[in-house]
Amino acid sequence: MGSQRMLSAAHVIQTLLHVLQVSVSYLLMLVFMTYNGFLCIAVALGAGAGYFLFSWRKAVVVDITEHCH
């Protein structure tokens, strides 16, 4: 197995993407909390459309302990 490092490029990119996701989530929460009906509907429909378009292919989880004796 390869060793994992905290400062690897992949970990830094994942961290930046996580910060971006949390920031966008908080901004959408603030938009929703304006209680403007049209904005609330737009956020809900956008979340639904994003889920429909981007999560139709589920990740496959492989149990690596299945073949261990």
What does this structure look like?
Keywords: Cell membrane, Copper, Copper transport, Disulfide bond, Endosome, Ion transport, Membrane, Oxidation, Phosphoprotein, Transmembrane, Transmembrane helix, Transport. One of its GO terms (cellular component) is basolateral plasma membrane. Pfam families: Ctr. Its main location: membrane. One of its GO terms (molecular function) is copper ion transmembrane transporter activity. The chain is an all-alpha fold and 69 residues long. It has a domain at 9-54. It contains 2 helices and no strands. The chain has helices at 9-32, 37-54. It starts with 8 loop residues before the first helix and ends in a 15-residue tail after the last helix.
**SSE order, as H and E?**
HH
Work out the helicity level. Answer: 55-70%
Helix count equals 2
Kindly report how far apart the N and C termini lie: 20 Å
What is the overall pLDDT average? 87
Number of extended strands? 0
Note the overall shape.
flat
What is the gyration radius calculated from CA atoms?
19 Å
Uncertain parts: none
What percent strand? under 5%
Major sheet details: none
Q: Provide the structure class.
A: mainly alpha
| Quaternary organisation | single chain
InterPro entries: Cop_transporter
Keywords: Cell membrane, Copper, Copper transport, Disulfide bond, Endosome, Ion transport, Membrane, Oxidation, Phosphoprotein, Transmembrane, Transmembrane helix, Transport
Organism: Muraenolepis orangiensis
Main location: membrane
